Amino acid sequence: MITEKGLWNRLRLRLLFTGPTLFAFLAVMIIPFLYGIYLTFTNWDGISTSSSLVGFENYVSVFKDTVFWQSFLLTLKYVFISVALINIVAFLLAYVLTSGLKGQSIFRAGFFIPNLVGGIVLGFVWQFIFSNVFVYVGKELSIPLFSDSWLADPDKAFWSMIIVTVWQYAGYMMVIYVAGLMNVPKDILEAASIDGASLWTKMRKMILPLMVPSFIVCIFLSLQRCFMVYDLNLSLTKGGPFKSTEMVSMHVYEKAFLSRDYGVGQAEAFVLFLLVATITIAQVYFSKKLEVEA
Amino acid sequence: MENRNGALAWTKFIALLVCLVLFIFPFAMLLVNSFKENKAITSSPLSLPESFSFANYTNAFGKMSYVSAFSNSVVITVVSVVVISFLAAMTAHYFVRNQTKLNQYTFFLMVAAMIIPFQAIMIPLVKIYGSIGFLNSKWALIYMYAGFGSPLAVFIYHGFVKSIPAELEEAALIDGCTRTQTFFRIVFPVLAPTTVTIAILNVLWIWNDFLLPSLVLISPDERTLPLSTFYFFGTYTVDYGPLMAGLMLTILPVLIVYLFAQKYIIQGVMQGSIK
């Protein structure tokens, strides 16, 4: 590459090309992130201009905050079930939609639609479905399962969160699986068919191993999105009934902005970040080992 | 053999059709009920409207301050996406063509930062920018989107800039282009398909984002579409007719764009995940 002459010219070029991006990136992500770590050691209440250092007091409060750990466990359960269902549904849809069916691109486009709309709006739409449409159907056909609103019952409200989450993300992950399945070489599958391999054998020995990169991406994305669920939680159940579906992200928000306990709230957010980062990095690291070449 | 395959294909097709109907069902309910009166909605949500009245729509249109919310959303989304694309492409290009240790570490830092969830940053972010009085404006929000959006965009561009032969740029330099001209006249146009991918991923995110704007935009006339939908729903909880119409109004613009750009959007998501 031809290099620019003169220190000044090189510096000017660097500033022009990387300056604005790096400024925004550092000032919006890195500095607040580091400052956030500092905040966890203070007792700032959100209003006063001064705050004092309190050492590890906030972290002690985090460990004592049983509501935080309850909602963390609830989130874990929610993430585990949702991620599993999202990926199973998405993979099955993608598999059927790459088998050369008529109108498959229309189907793909249709299943993707929920991803065009934000969690807030989707939550409100489903709130209506769960508490009006289902109740109406349940009463008309006297199905006890539906005759009361799902959102009024802690257990069913939890499952409604899962249903809507799976419905929302399955289409997105399906698109990624479709891209992966289209890259599975057709000739080796044909060769296996000629050698008499059954569909199940081909799936287990060839398709699934070759699809590992797609699984890594999809599980990573769904893990991250489900752990951090907030919009849907807010608009579908508002954490209710009786805070029974309050996911950890909503808990952090309320701790900081409603209870004005910024130090503890930030400490909880930081603990959450560490746990989620560990889980997602471990997932990517261990599943990379399953990757194979065609 | 032929017959069995045909039957199998039909079973698959019908199963898929049932799935798709289930997927679309909530939106269909929304559409049907948005034309009905409150009483009809609660007494028989499944029936078709008796007459087509746009009363709910005009009602929601006014109460949501739709025009203002819609134009706020458009300005914020468009400007943010343009800014992110330009800045990230320039930075990624610079990083690829100047592989110094510093640049490599900076790039690595950006990639690593993608794992930080927004919730881990929101409290200090609000504190910092609140204390210097830089909240409650579109421009503050756009600036923040540029910060949050740049890591992924730089990462995706980085992968594609590497595939552009350096000779192409050298030729332009020899012909008398400056570095900046070379970038804007040669590199950026070559990156167009990647830019489409990045634009699509960012539009889907920024248009629908709720938490960040809810923290940054305080006054009602700055609200974006998701925000005004949220406050509208909170204020008129039992007024089902206008609420349904309001939700339709929020969904409609995206659906219309999707109708025309469907192919690019699906491709954009595919491309964005592969890299």
Explain the overall architecture.
The complex is a heterodimer of chains A (294) and B (275). Chain A has twelve helices and no strands. Chain A is 73% helix and 0% strand. The mean pLDDT of chain A is 83. Chain A is mainly α and 294 residues long. Chain A is globular, with a radius of gyration of 24 Å. Chain B has a domain at 64-235: MetI-like fold, CATH 1.10.3720.10. Helices cover 79% and strands 0% of the residues of chain B. Chain B contains 13 helices and no strands. The mean pLDDT of chain B is 84. The chains are: A mainly alpha (294), B mainly alpha (275). Chains A and B meet through α1, α4, α5, α6 and α9 of A and α1, α4, α5, α6 and α7 of B.
Keywords:
A: 294 residues, mainly alpha, 73% helix, globular, B: 275 residues, MetI-like fold, 79% helix
Task: Write a short abstract of this structure.
With 294 residues, chain A is an all-alpha fold.
Oligomer: heterodimer
Mean pLDDT of chain B: 84
**Morphology of chain A:** globular
Within CATH, the superfamily of chain A carries the name MetI-like
Shape designation of chain B: globular
Helix content of chain A: over 70%
Tally of helical segments of chain B? 13
CATH topology tier name of chain A: MetI-like fold
| Cα radius of gyration of chain B in angstroms | 24 Å
Distance between the termini of chain B: 41 Å
Biggest protein-protein interface?
Answer: A-B, 91 and 90 residues
Return the structural class of chain B: mainly alpha
Please give the largest β-sheet of chain B: none
- Low-pLDDT residue intervals, each spanning 5 or more residues of chain B: none
| Continuous helix count of chain A | 12
Write the CATH architecture name of the domain at 64-235 in chain B.
Orthogonal Bundle
Termini separation of chain A comes to 36 Å
| CATH class annotation of the domain at 64-235 in chain B | Mainly Alpha
Structural class determined from secondary elements of chain A: mainly alpha
- Helix/strand order of chain B, N-terminal first: HHHHHHHHHHHHH
